[in-house]
Predict the 3D structure of the following.
Amino acid sequence: MSEPSSAKAIRRAEEAQALKERKRYNAIVITVVVVLALLVVFAVLFSSNLFYNTTTAVTIGGYDFTAADFNFNYFTAYNTHYNTYAYYAQLGMTGILPASGTPLDEQVCGLMGDESNEATWADYFEQQALETMRQVAMLCTAAANDPGFTLSQEDKDAVDETVEGMKTTALTYGYPDLEAYLVQLYGKGMTEKVFRENLMRQATASAYAAYKQDSFTYTDDELTAKYAEQANDLDFYTMRSYWFSGAAVTDDTSTEEDETMSAEDAMAKAEADAKAFDAALTDEQSFIDYAASLHEAEKAEDADTDTDDTDADTDTDTGDTDTYDADESTYSQLQGSDVNSDMIKAAYTWLTDASRKAGDHTVVGSTDEDSRSGFYVLYFLERDNNQYLSVNGRYGYIPEDTDVFEEGAEPEDQDEKAEKIKEANLLIAQEVLDDYANGAEKGEDAFAAVMSDEENSDLVTNSGALDRGGRYDMPEELRDWFYDEARKEGDTEAVYVEGDGTYLVYYTGTGDTYADVLADTILRGADMSDWTTEQMKSFTVDTQWEMVLTKKMASLN
């Protein structure tokens, strides 16, 4: 019996549906297999260096950076910030470093000016890294397009030295090779090749920035006009000053007396004390003497307080009055811009007055514009308009060593102790200077070579050139040496600066008038800033999806 047509139709429909289901199932299986295969490939790729050092994560003005490049700049931003602010964090400053043990992307950072308080430390370091990459991209592009620029062999050698130094450090810390150490520092994908490329970018960017800034030129008239425009800020002022604080005083609970004083009363007392000081002045020495007498009176008052305080086991005097030197403490030489920022506005106005002459003295008080409250007594000595020749030379620096005494041989007399420390430091410095004096080669280059010689690196921690230095760019001891009228080219000396160290110095001659140096610096800085701002307009950041996967630092802290 033949199958009814209706049954045939139903069977055919079922077969067609089954076929369709099988095709759909096969398509799903194929899709799943493909996806799994892609995931396996991606996992392998992501776990290898290939993803990080070949995939573009950021494009800036047509300049491509890989994921490893981004991580290099991110980690560099983190380490630079930490090294800069760790000391201040130890002193108790808060909010300047992320907390340890918590991912950076889970910590709010108050340094970004984010009113919503949602910006994290991870955001902050990403911002720092991207801004650095913008500048590097712009400067490297400009360098490549400037036929007059070539990276010096010295800069190339410095990159090589850095890489070799990292290799030594890696072995010192027990890493099998440089790459293992670099991965620990900068994340996955950081090979020696990528590390070197980023160092070369940094070197090129830095060298070209200096090259470009040096390319600006100015006429004598332009320099003179710029200095005249900012003379009050650029001139140097020699003065005597004494500060009477007008800040409110809270009670010291360790004493029986109530020292509480309101801000109004404190200002009134400060003004009265300052006017009494000013009224007693007849010459510069009277200023020194009056300041010394105030501290002697304070010392006596502290002694009386300690005597009356029968519960005190030790002298509460801080010791400041015992070591106070009125001559040194009241004397200062400040540039006008520093007077404006470090003192009160009225002091700046009075000192920069064109009619001011040696021997003038006055009392000036703070206003609401100032960051502190009180009164200055000022005694004007001199205004220096920087119309003298700058000096050129070279130097090597040896930090001061105060641990120069054998056990039990340290003098009790402080002056004798200081003299012995000076003698010991100069003796060490002279040994390095003798290397130059006894060498076959003479001259500036030979001196520089001795200062940077590896054999002297344990002593000479810093060396370099003094280019068009001014009187106030250096400690007084160095100023006296460089500006000695008898100084001649090729002179060398070991100059000790108490509390600082010993400078091995070489004199090459005079440079431009220092006023022109200052004006030139201002003009050059402004022109460089304008050029940079204009160039950076073309270098916008375009982050790719791959960068999301490179933010390793957010989970490491």
Summary: Residues 75 and 95 are 20 Å apart (CA to CA). The radius of gyration is 34 Å. Residues 29-46, 309-321, 552-557 have pLDDT under 50 and may be disordered. The chain has four domains: 5-47, 57-215, 236-311+318-384, 389-512.
